[in-house]
C-alpha cells in the first residue's frame, strides 16, 4: 500500500535553515534596538562665539589723583642782627672762703650712734644664733638639736587622716613657717598633693611650742624654716 503524503510537501525538510535565519533577524533587530539613540530638540546645544561682545569690553575710567602743591619754603633769616642792650643790673654774689687756719678751733658736736633696728628675715642655715627649741638650751650643737626635736614633735603628733586613707592618697607636704622675734610660730604655709594632708600638717605645726628667738648680731630676728612631712600608706 503506497503512502498518501507527497514527499515534496514535507514541511520539516528546511526547518533548520529557517530557524537560523529567524534567529539572525531577531538578533539584528535586538542589537539595533539597543544601539538606537534619540535626542530631543530642546536639549540640543548650539554654540556661538560673539566676537563683538568680547571686543566691546568696558574699561573703567580712573580719576587722576591731584597731588597737593609743595609747601612754601621757610622765610630767609635776616641779614642784619640787631643787638639789644640789657639795662638790668646783675648783682654779683660773693662766695666766702671755707678754708680754716691751723690755729682756728673748730667745734664739733657730739656724735650719737643710733642703733638701726634689724627687721629682716634671716634663713635658718645662715643665722648666727639659731632659735632654741625647748629642751635644747644646754645642747652644744643647738642647730642639730633643733632638727632632732622637730622630728620628734612630728612623730609624736602625726596622725594619718582617715579620709585620705580611704581614698588611697599619699605624698609629701612641704611645710614653711616663721619663728618670729618673740619666739612664736607665724606665717604657716603648706604645699602638698591633697587638702586633707595639708590640713593635718597644719595641725602638727600649730602644736609647736614657743621657742627662744634666733639672733643676728645679738638682736632678735625672724627666722623662716621649712620641713617636709611625708604621708605614706603601709
UniProtKB/TrEMBL annotation:
Official protein name in the record: Protein TonB
Gene Ontology terms, MF aspect: energy transducer activity
Any Gene Ontology biological process: siderophore transport
Subcellular location: Cell inner membrane
Keyword annotations from UniProtKB, A to Z: Cell inner membrane, Cell membrane, Membrane, Protein transport, Transmembrane, Transmembrane helix, Transport
Pfam families: TonB_C
Domain TonB C-terminal, first and last residues per copy: 145-234
InterPro entries: TonB (IPR003538), TonB-dependent_transducer (IPR051045), TonB/TolA_C (IPR006260), TonB_C (IPR037682)
Amino acid at each position: 500500500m503506497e503512502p498518501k503524503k507527497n514527499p515534496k510537501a514535507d514541511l520539516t525538510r528546511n526547518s533548520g535553515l529557517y530557524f537560523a535565519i529567524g534567529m539572525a533577524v531577531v538578533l539584528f533587530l535586538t542589537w539595533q534596538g539597543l544601539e538606537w539613540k534619540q535626542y530631543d530638540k530642546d536639549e540640543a546645544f548650539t554654540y556661538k562665539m560673539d566676537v563683538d561682545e568680547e571686543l566691546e569690553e568696558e574699561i573703567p575710567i580712573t580719576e587722576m589723583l591731584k597731588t597737593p602743591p609743595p609747601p612754601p619754603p621757610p622765610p630767609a633769616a635776616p641779614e642784619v642782627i640787631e643787638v639789644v642792650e640789657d639795662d638790668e643790673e646783675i648783682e654779683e654774689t660773693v662766695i666766702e672762703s671755707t678754708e680754716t687756719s691751723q690755729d682756728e678751733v673748730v667745734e664739733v658736736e657730739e656724735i650719737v650712734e643710733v642703733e638701726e633696728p634689724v627687721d629682716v628675715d634671716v634663713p635658718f642655715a645662715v643665722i648666727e644664733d639659731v632659735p632654741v627649741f625647748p629642751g635644747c638650751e644646754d645642747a652644744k650643737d643647738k642647730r642639730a638639736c633643733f632638727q632632732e626635736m622637730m622630728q620628734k614633735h612630728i612623730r609624736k603628733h602625726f596622725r594619718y587622716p582617715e579620709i585620705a586613707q580611704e581614698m588611697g592618697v599619699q605624698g609629701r607636704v612641704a611645710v614653711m613657717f616663721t619663728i618670729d622675734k618673740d619666739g612664736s610660730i607665724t606665717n604657716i604655709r603648706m604645699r602638698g598633693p591633697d587638702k586633707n594632708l595639708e590640713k593635718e600638717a597644719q595641725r602638727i605645726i600649730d602644736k609647736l611650742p614657743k621657742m627662744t628667738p634666733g639672733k643676728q648680731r645679738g638682736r632678735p630676728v625672724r627666722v623662716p624654716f621649712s620641713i617636709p612631712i611625708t604621708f605614706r600608706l603601709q
